[in-house]
Amino acid sequence: MTAQLEHRAEPLLRRLVGAILRQERERQRRTLRDVAEDARVSVAYLSEVERGRKEASSEVLAAVCRALGLRLVDLVGTAHARLALAEGRVVVDLTAPAAGRELATVTTLPTRTTGAQVLLAA
């Protein structure tokens, strides 16, 4: 018996990535011009990327990430987490430092479909 996949409208990756970049730029209270200059791209192009209208190359994304003090893996990881969350999945970053603790907390989470539990530990 084959399981049917539930078809949902997934967000376009370019819109998701653009929103993440914009949120980070705004969190840093930086202007489009400032980040565009640091990334060596035009203000108009960065604006289009942030609004999800342009599909940026990996080179441009890496340059914008550097200008924002991000690693490309952080951008991709955040996009992955948001996509997973939109599907009701949980993503846990096991590499994140456990604030002031030597060991991370071990958590069990019931899955939505099977009721099975997933053990998370770091």
Automatic annotation (TrEMBL):
Q: Which SMART domains match?
A: HTH_XRE
Against CDD domains, the record matches this protein to:
HTH_XRE
UniProt superkingdom: Bacteria
Q: Which ranges carry the HTH cro/C1-type domain?
A: 21-75
InterPro entries documented for this protein: Cro/C1-type_HTH, Lambda_DNA-bd_dom_sf
Q: Which GO terms describe its molecular function?
A: DNA binding
What protein is this chain from?
Helix-turn-helix transcriptional regulator
Record the organism: Cellulomonas humilata
